[in-house]
Amino acid sequence: MQGYRKHHRFFSPKLAIFFFLMIFHSFQANSQNDPAVILYQEAINEYGFRHLKPAKERLERLIKLYPSHSLSNRAKIDLGRVMIDNREYDKAIEVLTPLTEISNPQCKEAREMLITLLLELQRFRQGVDLLEKWWKESQGNPELGRKLASFYLQCGRADEAKVLLESLLERTARRDVFDDLLRLSAKSGQLETLLSAIESRSARYKTIDYLDFTSDCYIALKEPEKAVTILEKAPETATSLLLLQKLSRLELSRNRPEKALESFRRIERIIPNDWNNEKALGHCLFLLGKKDEAISTWRKTLSGQPYPNQEFYQLFSGVLIEHNLYEEALLVFSEARTALGSPIIFAQERASVLETLNRKKEAVDEYLVALQNDPYMPEILEKLIKLPEKGSVFNLKEKIKELIPHSQSLSLKKALLEIYFREQNLNAIPEILTLVSPVGSMFDQVFFERINEALT
């Protein structure tokens, strides 16, 4: 059961402790005269320290002594959680099951905990029995229906899962239900059957939902040209963001940037100045050999900003680099430094571009600038060690020692310390002590951690 505790966030000890502490503060004001609240607070404290046995004892005492208290059901939920943490799974199921009645205020939380536990314990039949009961009581709740279908599949009852999901899809046209059905049909080799079923019942769906579902079926069948055809022919596509985005992706995947560009232009009219769309639109222009227009398109979002924005320059330079427009990216970095008033911003990115262009000396200078930016980044030091060509007069250690008196950065001192440790020169011990002594406790910790690392 280790996988159960490892993979499910719902029962994460950290989340549970956080949740308990929130409850602790909410009841703290009323605790002085209420023994039930005092017991609950004590249980929370014990659980916070992972003292499961005393936490369990206090919750059980609260439930026994004060069965009608407003905290009683809350305590049962938390008792179930403590039992799960203590691997008392059957007892947890026994505690949680009565709380799943629809009249109980903790019903939803108890059901989520119980179904997750049964799934991890692989007690699928027990889960099916409970979910079928809740499904009837809820009069067709889609979330319960999806969970029931997943348990049907675990029990080998794929046909029942398929029928349930099909009925849910017809009634709700929910995308998540369709996704479940599409995965099931793909796994069972019944994609064409699913497509035929949707086409035969087209009147039951809104046109956009119908086009969305059928086009996805064609894509799953590896017939993207048919998906494109139905989307292009439908007048609803021209005004649907969902369908236009799908059509543009399909056209790009078929290496038809000129057709994809038409869709991106339509999307632009629906959501102007959207970066993801402008990025894709510029990509199409670039593929069509219109580099300057592509760059202008990517830059266009800057005009909507009231003042220079670092995030924009990050995105703009990033898309230029993606398209191997390195010289243009360098110009953008220079522009950003001027506009944002920082001569060191984007140092690592600029150094990486210079390195790609084989301008190693400039790249080294820029990596040195980047090295001075806290926090310390070991990968930058690695670049500075490996980048200079053999026979170069560049001496990294001496260069860092020159920079340290003129900088308040701890990163430079950490980098120099790392170089000393790699050299393993006993004669350098006085220099290391000089480097470490005036810095303070924070750097002392770094120093001793590095010593331990060297020893191990």
Descriptors:
mainly alpha; disordered N terminus
Helical content band: over 70%
Q: pLDDT average, as an integer? A: 89
Which structural class do the helices and strands define?
mainly alpha
Q: Could you describe the largest sheet, including whether it forms a barrel?
A: none
Low-pLDDT segments:
1-11
Shape: flat
Total of helices: 27
Question: How far apart lie the N and C ends?
Answer: 33 Å
Record field, number of beta strands: 0
SSE order, one letter for each helix or strand: HHHHHHHHHHHHHHHHHHHHHHHHHHH
Q: Return Rg in Å.
A: 31 Å
Description:
With 456 residues, the chain is mainly alpha-helical. 72% of the residues lie in helices and 0% in strands. The chain has helices at residues 2-7, 13-28, 35-48, 52-65, 72-85, 89-96, 107-120, 124-138, 142-154, 158-172, 175-188, 191-200, 207-220, 224-233, 241-253, 257-270, 275-287, 291-299, 310-322, 326-340, 347-356, 360-371, 378-386, 396-403, 410-423, 429-436, 441-455. Mean pLDDT is 89; it is low at 1-11.
Short description:
This protein has 456 residues and is an all-alpha fold.
